[in-house]
Amino acid sequence: MRVGADVVGEIGAGLVVLLGVGPNDTDAVADGLAHRVTELRIFDDADGRTNLSLVDVGGSVLVVSQFTLYADTRRGRRPGFTGAAAPELAERLYLRFAAALRELGVEVATGQFGAVMEVELVNDGPFTIWLDTAER
Hints:
Blueprint: E1 2-3, E2 6-7, E3 14-19, H1 27-39, E4 43-44, E5 50-52, H2 54-57, E6 60-65, H3 87-103, E7 107-110
Parallel strand pairs: 3-6, 6-7
Antiparallel strand pairs: 1-2, 4-5
Helix pairs in contact: 1-3
């Protein structure tokens, strides 16, 4: 991941997490999401079955703050982002999520909050998963 010409975060094998923070999110939500991400069994075992977690395979996580996940495109042609958390809360919970992953033994790289970043990834496998922490 780059900001301008500077590499600000990179990992080897693992996951890219595009993290959107909502106004009702809390520290507990960030911590719980970190547990969910590390425990998902989405990596292949020796038999090619998706039985292994990020921790099992020793994978890393690249965490990218992504307020645009809250885009509201129901009206007009310009998306609105009023559903996203205020920057102060979003940055704090973004950093909290990354710290919680580290506490679970995962190597983590992050971008630069609020910056325009170029993110490159190799999508190795069938998984792109949306994890929604909103209570239903």
